[in-house]
Amino acid sequence: MVTAMKKKSEPEHSPSPTPERAIYGFVLYLFGIIGLCLYIIWAFIPLSWLEAVGLTYWPQKYWAFAAPVYGSVAFVFIIIFYVASNFLLTAPCDSMQTITDKFAKTIKTDLPEGCVPPIGDMDISEVNRILYMENN
Asked: Nearest 5 degrees, angle CA 42-CA 43-CA 46?
């Protein structure tokens, strides 16, 4: 019974806002807005105007448009490589890792038509038949 009760010294973990989270979120929001404003100034205001104000060191304008494009392409490739790595790491159907054990709950196949089957483990060959066999 003692293990079921929480100790009073342990903090409760909840997703609700706390003052620390609110401050961090607000500071992150401010940095994001400031960064966006600096990016827009850098990308769209002519370099001669910036130099007239006294802002002399800026990266080349090429990077104002190339960096977001590189980031977008990198994001697409990350998604593609993530899916590909999942395919490579999945065990084949004849692997010892896909064989069921004595604790698996099998599903009855002789259920009435239109009935929702109970939750249980399906045989891998049954899953493959349902997913990949063409119903001609």
From this structure: 75
In eight-state DSSP terms, residue 111 is: P
Residue 12 has pLDDT above 70, yes or no: no
19-44 and 62-89 helices, crossing angle to 10°: 130
Model pTM above 0.70: no
Other Cβ atoms closer than 10 A to 45: 13
**Token output for 127:** 């899953």
- The rounded Cα 25 to chain-centroid distance in angstroms is 20
Which single residue is written with the structure tokens 């998604």? 79
Could you tell me which residues come within 8 angstroms of residue 104 by beta carbon, excluding any fewer than 6 positions away? Answer: 120, 121
pLDDT digits (tens, 9 = 90+) for 26-68: 999 999 999 999 999 889 999 899 889 988 888 888 999 999 9
Question: What is the DSSP secondary structure assignment for residue 98, as one 8-state letter?
Answer: G
Contacts (Cβ under 8 Å, ≥6 apart) of 106: 120, 121, 123
Q: Rg of the chain over CA atoms, in angstroms?
A: 29
* Residue 88, token pair as written in the block: 């490579």
